[in-house]
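Two proteins were folded this term; both appear here.
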Amino acid sequence: MILEIKDLTKKYKNYLRPQNFVALNNINLKIKKGEFISVLGPSGSGKTTLLRSINGLETIDKGEVLFDNKNINQNNLSYVQSKTGMIFQEYNLINNLSVINNVLTGLVSSSSKLLSMFYIFSKQQRLQALHSLETVGLLDKSYNRADELSGGQRQRVGIARAIIKKPILLLADEPVASLDPKASNLITNLLKKISRELKITIICNLHNIDLAKIYSDRVVGLLNGSIKFIKKPSELNEKIINSIFQKNEEKK
């Protein structure tokens, strides 16, 4: 197993109510190396907190997360984050920088802090960045400014930045939520290709049920911080999908 989550619980202080808000409630999940896992669930279901708990950005209240047979804690945090890439909904690019320099920011944690402040990287690092851009089909845009690109292209830059450090796990938090259907399919297809060809495990938060069915090895349904199902795409039906989305529909 590349990842094993045991009884994971995460609470946030709620100053308006006497009880703390439970973002994740007794999560148990095992993920094999190279799997593409989609996490489905409405807004507020705990999807983002789950990813942030996996890469150590959130401290957990109960349970444990084992990544590459190492418990995610302060002692192992630098190793975990060096082997984990993150892809965001809003891309998190620096608009006035070139595409290649945005990709190179993915190496900041492993480079000289002083040199990286001025975007001074070695020839080998620049070759790594160009290779990452070639992987996502944007080699010809390497020296364009980031704000000259379309939304789908900007997300591909975000993916190139995430894979430049050669992670073994990619965490994608709603990577297609801001994109049109064509770009959404292209990005999800690219992530699947990267998972298959580079043997990278991917956990991808999604709202789009159709994309989850097409590209996932397994689909996790999350609602109110609890796992409601773990299914293969072929096992999903309307009743199962409604078990996590129907409450949202009833409110409309």
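Next, the second protein.
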Amino acid sequence: MSSVIDSMSQELSPEEIEAIAACGTSKTYPKHTILINEGDRSDFLYVIIQGRVKIFVGDEKGREVILNIQGPGEYLGEIALIDESPRSASVMTLEPSRLAFVSRDDFTRYLGAHPDTALKLLRSFAHRIRELTELAKNLALSDVYGRVARTLLKMARERDDGQWVIEQRLTHQDIADMVGASREMVSRIMKDLAKGGYIQTQKKIITICHRLPPGW
């Protein structure tokens, strides 16, 4: 699984993200607050200090696909901030969260003073484009089990004790919204993976105990 994790590593260091956050103002938001609506125009980069948010797209019928779930030390909104286009997705808090919001002017000044960070950010853009391409491929070409397995592997992180853990507290509905399937189907897959000893779930934190099977 190391290749999956390596490809998902954050381009900016925690120190760089903290320095960017310090350029802005922080604010606390309650659970289920919409921070960004798809199509909005905004002049701010958001850095998550505490809590979790989901990034998603939806349609007029209320259906949605979760593109990502992010937590402390991660950032969002940088692409629209640079190209000045409308936001391409919506963002909502999943729990009480504290975020720093950095204006376009402050962000631009910081990058001008730190060209190495600007280069890393360009690499991050490229990585996120690859992620979206992989997501589209996964949704189009994989069966439901394949989409679930890829999502679990993508989100897993290795701890110091060698365990691979998905630290975001995901519900089966969250996973279903990520893979474009019903909650019932995802629940059956997760139950079978747990029964087979491949995963363990405690307090919605999933541990991958063994390499996931190629098919289900």
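Residues 23 and 105 are 10 Å apart (CA to CA). The first strand starts at residue 25 and ends at 29. These notes refer to the second protein only.
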